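Final report, closing paragraph on structural work. Over the funding period we assembled a curated collection of sequence-structure pairs, and we close with a single example.
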Amino acid sequence: MPLWTRTESLKPPGRDPNRRKTHLSGLTDMLANLRLDEKIERNHDIEQENKVRRKNNLKKKTDAISRARTEWENRPVDSGDETRIPFDPETAICDDLSSLASLLTIDSEDYEKIRKSRPWREKLSEFLGLRFDLWAAGKDKEDEERERQTDLEAMRMVSNWTEGGSATASATQHSKTSKTAPIFEPVARKIGVEREVIFIPQLLETANYNIHIPLAFFTNDNLHRLAMEGAHTGTKTIPNPSGTGGKIFILDVAKLCQSWGIPDSNHPTEGLDDYAIFLEAVQNYYDFECKRDPGGVEGQLYAEFTRKHFNFWRSQPKALKLYKFWKPLELQLRMEKATYHYTYDETEYLKMWMKAEMQAMVADMVLDSSQRQSSSSSSVSASAGPQRSTPSFKGKRTKPFREFFQGSTAERGKPPVCVGCAERAHKFNEHADGKALKWSSAEKKGTA
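Its predicted structure, as stored:
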């Protein structure tokens, strides 16, 4: 059944019904070959033009009825019977009404394709309008309910298998003693379409048990890996929190973080150092919160807070540049919401953003100071020119200055030597009178 109500073009009496009025035969093939997004945009334009025509037609028809009523009230009356005939608005003649253009045909399968593709919906949202949004919201809710029932059935099957009972696969009873594999419905692989992320029941139960799940678990790769491996290798059982007895399966988050190399909540970015991967995980996490919110997409317990929380950070002009500064603050607010059930308070978020900006400013100042010091040191070294090296003395060391003039340590403690006669036991000033001097210079002088 088509999503849009088809608009019938007004045709003059006697016109061939198979002959088009607004979409002429020569243009039909060209219009049919337009891309889907071009058809959507063209239908949007046609609807806007038809809206103007309807408004003008309504005014023309109203004016015509008003004129006809005035003429009827002012008509000459010959008998009393005619005065009892009521005025019939259908008698008003209005021949100048504008024709409404027909919309291009778009199959319901194409609308389903747009609904299930987030990039298509974002690209064409301004052309699809409120009517599509209401229809898509209803379909999304139906899908969510169907998936919820499927997840509950899967959880019952896992519980039955674990407790040694039996599980139902489709309409066949699959007992614990059966040697055959469970029955499933084969699904064809869609070329060019990304694999749809799956939130396994254990992931939902873990979150419902108020156990923090790092945001890195919600990347596409980790969700796919969780669907294939986590349900069998990274789970543990806990008592059923509903009080109905039995046990339920939840994820062993600590074990998975260790084996998969995913940082826990103590890591400043939760292991999402790439801002683009962070946005991918955020979108999946929002879908996850909508899925477990009792109110669905419109829920006010989880979905609304998650939407406002992440939209605040993503909408900041410097979100990418300051990512490493505000990411720990984002985690802090999200953890406080899970612990204390705080509502979204934009004032508190603005304080956190100012704190991130201040941290970034301080970091820039420290970096600039370090660079200036490094540059200054390089400039001083370059301007000082070549430095004189300190000479090195190798081999035998020379005697100290005082030791050179006082004699060696071996001569210390012996009687003095007279420089006149070269004999010991007296000094030159103690030389005996008349005793010959050894040095000719002293002999010539004739004095001691």
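Residues 416-448 form one domain. The radius of gyration is 48 Å. We thank the funder for supporting this effort.
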